[in-house]
Amino acid sequence: MEKFKICGPSKLSGEVIIGGAKNATLPVLCSSILTSDTIEISNVPKLRDVSTMLSLLGEMGASFKFDPLSKICEINTDSLFSVEASYDLVKTMRASILVLGPLLARFGQAKVSLPGGCAIGQRPVDQHIKGLRQMGANIKIEDGYIIAETTGLKGTTIKNDIITVTGTENLMMAACLADGETLIENAAMEPEIVDLASCLRSMGAIIFGDGTNKISIHGSKKLSGCKHEIVFDRIEAGTYLCAVAACGGDVLLKNVNTLNMKMIIKKLQKFGGEIFDCGTSIRVKFSKRPESVSFDTAPFPGFPTDMQAQFMAVNAIARGTAKIRENIFENRFMHVQELQRLGAMIKVKASTATITGVENLRGANVMATDLRASAGLVIAAISANGNSSIDRIYHLDRGYEQMDRKLNSIGASVQRIKS
Ligand code: EPU
Question: Hey, how many other C-beta atoms are within 10 angstroms of the C-beta on 227?
Fold first, then answer.
């Protein structure tokens, strides 16, 4: 296992190139199941979750070539021989559930392990199942597996009871090969959904309304190969913006735009930072201690739960008291205990955390518990006085490409060592 040794505090300056979005890459890789042609995906980040998804598709018989240097991945599912996603892989990455809709749509059957709960919450998949049943699939749950079959999915109107990102993606992909029109109401509106829809359209799918809460998909008999470039990772970008807010400095993020990040940027400005929209780059400048910022997490265009831990880390050293309410996942405050080890003053009551900023955090040994929690700990540790170590950084490698190198290139001191 590896850990980070961090020596703080740092002031950050320079440039960071932001990669393609993990949460767009995973569904786009699964969309390859919908066609027997090759799809060529560019701007694919080299992340552990991406390798896990490629292994899962590979185990089912997909062939792929991924060049991490050019960031291009070619994938073909013509010779797929299995429609099963085993527990061993699904348990390591919940996004594996994204094979369910495409498998059912193209092959009429799928057997996918139930993802089960995870560190940040229960995370059921009832909405995925309900929607597919409405499209005519027979689905039973047996021995921990979702076993689904159909003689042909039929377009219908599906009203999701709650807003779900991967649920919307699964239904959107399944509907592409269904007979007739599917209307998904109360759909998620995240930029990653828009990116998936744009890839599906390049494959020949007819989709309207992505980016709104009503998506209409007119089923096609067949989809074809395509080329698609993955949208930038707004959460990776937001994480570096928070690092600058906590440490101070002047940094240019490249290959991004402000359109997908309006809420994140609005809240960052409240911390007291200057943000400059430079077209395909964003410049962020912090020259004084941040002011505390309160927020509630919500589906897009609200404040993303995936940025909650990083904003909490900044609030830990901000002037004043902030309240953060986590509305998406029931157990996404596991970083609180670790931030407290670094000297943060945080109280949690039910889904609300109250953070009273201290002038300086102190280095300490802490443990990463999930992907975004780890990012929050890294931000806190690079701004803290003294040495810290962060254990279990495999969580970080799931969703951040070379975070240590990127941070060091702008002035932090982060060393990756074997523990
Ligand atoms: N939910 C249900 N039933 C369902 C589906 C979801 O009750 O059938 C609940 C969940 O338990 C949760 C809420 O609805 O309380 C929202 O969950 P959602 O389905 O939107 O989450 P997800 O699709 O599993 C994606 C991202 C997460 C991100 C959430 C929320 C991917 C691969 N994952 O998860 O990303 O936090 O949306 O924005 O897109 C991360 O990158 O660190 C990460 C966890």
Answer: 13
> Is 7 noted as a catalytic residue in this protein?
no
Whether 110 contacts 83, CB under 8 Å: yes
Q: Give the atom of ligand 1 at the shortest distance from the alpha carbon of 192.
A: 39
pTM of the shown model: 0.98
> Which tokens belong to 188?
């998620």
In the chain, what are the helix, strand and coil shares in percent, each to the nearest 5? 35, 30, 35
Ligand 1 site residues (CB inside 6 A) read 23, 26, 94-95, 121-128, 162, 164-167, 305-306, 328-329, 371-372, 399
- Average pLDDT per block of 10 residues along the chain, 419 residues long: 96 98 98 98 97 97 98 98 93 94 98 84 92 98 96 98 98 98 98 98 98 98 98 98 98 97 97 96 98 98 98 98 97 96 98 98 96 97 98 95 98 94
> Strands 249-254 and 274-277, how do they pair?
unpaired
Q: How far is CA 334 from the centre of its chain?
A: 18
Instruction: Tell me how many degrees the CA angle 19-265-119 measures, rounded to the nearest 5.
Output: 65
Contact in structure between 234 and 264 (CB atoms under 8 Å): yes
Q: What is the CA(223)–ligand 1 centre distance, in A?
A: 27
User: Which one of 93, 166, 296, 398 would you pick to mutate in the ligand 1 pocket, going by the greatest count of ligand atoms within 8 A of its CB?
Assistant: 166
Are 292 and 319 within 8 A, CB to CB? Answer: yes
Q: Whose CA is nearest to atom 29 of ligand 1?
A: 165
Q: Are strands 226-229 and 365-367 parallel, antiparallel or unpaired?
A: unpaired
- Angle of CA points 138, 114, 97, to nearest 5°: 80
Tell me the β-bridge partners of 16: 253
Question: In degrees, to the nearest 5, what angle opens at C-alpha 36 toward C-alphas 31 and 42?
Answer: 50
